[in-house]
TrEMBL record:
Organism: Arabis nemorensis
MF GO annotations: ATP binding; MAP kinase kinase kinase activity; protein kinase binding
Residues covered by the Protein kinase domain: 3-263
UniProt record, GO biological process: abscisic acid-activated signaling pathway; response to osmotic stress
EC class name: transferase
Localization terms from the record: Nucleus
PANTHER family: CCR4-NOT TRANSCRIPTIONAL COMPLEX SUBUNIT CAF120-RELATED, MITOGEN-ACTIVATED PROTEIN KINASE KINASE KINASE 19
Lineage, broadest ranks: Eukaryota, Viridiplantae, Streptophyta, Embryophyta, Tracheophyta
InterPro entries: Kinase-like_dom_sf, Plant_MAPKKK, Prot_kinase_dom, Protein_kinase_ATP_BS, Ser/Thr_kinase_AS
Protein name from the UniProt record: mitogen-activated protein kinase kinase kinase
Amino acid sequence: MNWTRGKTIGRGSSATVYAATCHESGETIAVKSAEFHRSEFLQREAKILSSLNSPYVIGYRGCETTKEPFNNGEATTYYNLLMEYAPYGTLTDVAAKNGGLLDEARVVSYTRQILLGLEYIHNSKGIVHCDIKGSNVLVGENGEAKIADFGCAKVVKPEITELVRGTPAFMAPEVARGERQGKESDIWAVGCTVIEMVTGSPPWIGADSTDPVSVLYRVGYLGESPELPSSLTEQAKDFLGKCLRKEAKERWTATQLLNHPFLITKPNTEPELGTGLVTNSPTSVTDQMFWRSVEQEEDQEHPSWWECHEDERIRVLSWMGPTWDMDGEDWIMVRRNND
Ligand SMILES: Nc1ncnc2c1ncn2[C@@H]1O[C@H](COP(=O)(O)OP(=O)(O)OP(=O)(O)O)[C@@H](O)[C@H]1O
């Protein structure tokens, strides 16, 4: 596919996302790019996304490498994941535009769509997302929620214990303890995302400590759950209770939750949305470490943070300082490598 790279629309910890125009169709697409030698996670994400097809999952448009000249004149090779463009940005962006939080009708509508996406990837594809949160759910052209950022996702293999992935504030007890990360852990994260949509903050903000290691300890070993917002209806609280059960096996599945009264008795409202956002995944510098996914430190020379002693983990987590800025680039041409 021939395309022209446009403005930066987002920066994550592992890649930069640009708007781009497809030459043949004129369609605006999103291109997530990383230098080739640092693109292992992006390549894995592309492989998973290419196997998915649902209105509630961001659409795959292809992947390719490009050679692009930089300031010093030398060409750098990039790996690019081409995706459907979501004009309204992430759920976190939409909430921010709405004063930080969303009303219950919108929360219901987005939650239902996230669960439809999860039902598809869990049941039809045997995939666990591992990093569900507001900033990893995009809002599509028609205002629908679409699960994105499959950089932490994996195919479920119950017999294999793999490294923990995801964002501490959204981690289920069994994930916080480093035991297993399955479909049920995504459901816990859905509960956390509902809290985020209702309160405008990730769970645990306002708790005694927002230090990620302390939160993981409280979730994993002290058996604590995030506080339920007092503004919620009893039905909503009951729904969250089904998502946030401490025992993974007792948590409801996506299919069961789709039939919970919280999701089936409310009318759908069409959200009023604005486009043109340029965002970074974390909402602010101060909460960035707390929000940040922990999938990419595997390629650092240090040991995996989870396998370390707690003191070591604190040190590893403190390495995750801000690495992003907000500069947008002008339109540039992209030269594609030969296929
Ligand atoms: N398809 C898309 N359409 C519109 N915006 C997008 C799209 N994909 C990503 N973005 C924007 O780019 C940002 C970063 O993307 P993404 O979360 O996929 O990157 P990442 O490097 O995996 O981030 P993270 O640090 O959360 O792992 C998103 O928060 C969003 O604002």
